[in-house]
From TrEMBL:
Keywords from the named record: Carbohydrate metabolism, Cellulose degradation, Glycosidase, Hydrolase, Polysaccharide degradation
Keyword Signal: no
Family: Belongs to the glycosyl hydrolase 1 family.
Active site (record annotation): 371
Listed InterPro entries: GH, GH_1_N_CS, Glyco_hydro_1, Glyco_hydro_1_AS, Glyco_hydro_1_beta-glucosidase
Enzyme Commission number(s) from the entry: 3.2.1.21
Record-given protein name: Beta-glucosidase
SUPFAM superfamilies named in the record: (Trans)glycosidases
Pfam families named among the record's database cross-references: Glyco_hydro_1
Species of the source: Pseudocitrobacter cyperus
Catalytic activity: Hydrolysis of terminal, non-reducing beta-D-glucosyl residues with release of beta-D-glucose
GO MF, any single term: beta-glucosidase activity
């Protein structure tokens, strides 16, 4: 029998920019992705979210499909510039109505909404003022969060402030592959600090407004394994843990940065710079839960070579280069690993290990698996989308989740990425994740995949039938 708790939520997830489209309709302001994706050479085959999969106009149809599949919860993000076109100030009531109608539609089908306030689509107006590097953006985020709590807080119990800070700060300010396309670790660290401050301000507002719910933060869960047992590789792997995990988890779960790493960054670059009261703000406004996005582990080795950050955005195996930083560490291919077309290792045990790693460091914090899924090119056979590899992937990871629960982890829900095939930020539509296929040759028609029916069975049996 499955060990999943009685009130465990079986869900699925998406993000606003990747599904909604309607990028300039009904008063919506531009986001940084609306601008960046139109610059030459920034995305695979020049794809952008102007239309995406048109969820903005097909919301009722999509929610009906969620209900048919039996979803108990749906994690989605709100587009900040759809509510506040300039990032602050004047409210776009048409945008508020869209999300209000979405929430009502979900609740009418007994689907619990989980809102992510920020999934990377910063209002361009705020970026023009300095974006995440300036304190005023954190203050604007608090205003935006308060608006969301006021309009939706009576109907929504599960909230997350930010999604994957390591990605939008790392790629935005270090690799330069995301907006604002900067290559400067000092600016990255300061921008990251303002995100943590924005989170703390939003948590403080949540509690001041007495919203009847829980608020958390969503991080990448990426365990690291040294390539060999050499002291150099072990040290490199520990450093990867410190930079890729502890730096992003400690401020929201412990209320402070990892001391040794903070000392190093401030000695090297003088960042992060703290404003008066920042220490107390972080310490006093910690999460109710942590959301974990797990896709893969990384095998780590020492890196005396050059810094390289080339990713695989084509879906052609082995087309990505090494990712690593000179003098620190680099990620290398596990010689015994099984990899996707995008060079991501499939390693379900990492989900169990990662959850227990979080429990060991942070105690009995409630956990939601807010993303987990397989990016693949799904085969169509006689008109049926036969995504058996996705079923196999999810089955193995649900089993890994079960092991973590048996080991004592407090896991509250599972949200595969994604409910529907959507726009992958840099990979276009070639990389598919969804239970629902979108036919871009036939007016974006929705088609149920084999995995749609499989996950429906998993939900109906509360994880007992896989």
């Amino acid at each position: 029998m499955a060990v999943f708790p009685k009130d465990f939520l079986w869900g699925a997830a998406t993000a606003a920019y990747q599904v909604e489209g309607a990028h300039d309709e009904d008063g919506k302001g531009l986001s940084i992705w609306d601008v960046f994706s139109h610059l030459p050479g920034t995305t695979y085959q020049g794809t952008n979210g102007d239309v995406a999969v048109d969820h903005y106009h097909r919301m009722q149809e999509d929610v009906a499909l969620m209900a048919e599949m039996g979803l108990q919860s749906y994690r989605f993000s709100i587009s900040w510039p759809r509510l506040l076109p300039a990032g602050r100030g004047k409210i776009n009531e048409a945008g508020v109505k869209f999300y209000s109608d979405l929430i009502d539609a979900l609740l009418a089908h007994n689907i619990e909404p989980m809102i992510t306030l920020y999934h990377w689509d910063l209002p361009q107006a705020l970026q023009d003022e300095g974006g995440w590097e300036v304190r005023s953006t954190a203050e604007a985020f608090e205003e935006y969060a308060r608006l969301c709590y006021a309009r939706f807080g009576s109907r929504v119990k599960l909230w997350a402030t930010f999604n994957e800070t390591i990605v939008f700060i790392g790629h935005g300010y270090i690799t330069g592959s995301h907006p604002p396309s900067v290559n400067d670790p000092a600016r990255a660290i300061q921008a990251c600090h303002q995100v943590f401050i924005a989170h703390a301000l939003a948590v403080k507002a949540f509690r001041e407004m007495k919203v009847n719910g829980e608020i958390g933060f969503v991080n990448v869960l990426q365990p690291h394994t040294p390539l060999t047992n050499s002291p150099e590789d072990i040290a490199a792997s520990e450093l990867a843990d410190a930079i890729h995990t502890h730096w992003f988890y400690d401020p929201v779960l412990k209320g402070s940065y990892p001391a040794e790493l903070l000392e190093k960054t401030q000695a090297l670059w003088g960042v992060p710079r703290f404003a008066p009261g920042d220490d107390a703000l972080l310490r006093d406004n910690r999460c109710d839960f942590i959301g974990l996005n797990y896709y893969r582990r990384e095998t780590v080795t020492a890196n005396p070579d050059e810094t390289r950050t080339q990713a695989n955005n084509s879906g052609e195996k082995n087309s990505g280069g090494e990712f690593g930083f000179k003098g620190l560490f680099k990620f290398v291919r596990n010689p015994d690993g099984v990899y996707t077309d995008w060079d991501w290792e499939i390693w379900p045990q990492g989900l169990t290990d990662g959850i227990m790693m979080v429990k060991a460091r942070y105690g009995d914090i409630p956990v939601y698996i807010t993303e987990n899924g397989l990016g693949a090119k799904d085969p169509i056979i006689n008109g049926e989308i036969v995504d058996q590899s996705r079923i196999d992937y999810l089955r193995m990871h649900i089993e890994a989740l079960e092991k973590a629960i048996e080991l004592g982890a407090d896991i509250r829900g599972y949200y595969p990425w994604s409910f529907i095939d959507l726009l992958s930020w840099l990979n276009g539509y070639k990389k598919q994740y969804g239970f629902v296929y979108v036919d871009h040759q036939q007016n974006l028609a929705r088609k149920r995949k084999k995995s749609f029916y499989w996950y429906k069975g998993v939900i109906e049996s509360h994880g007992g039938v896989r």
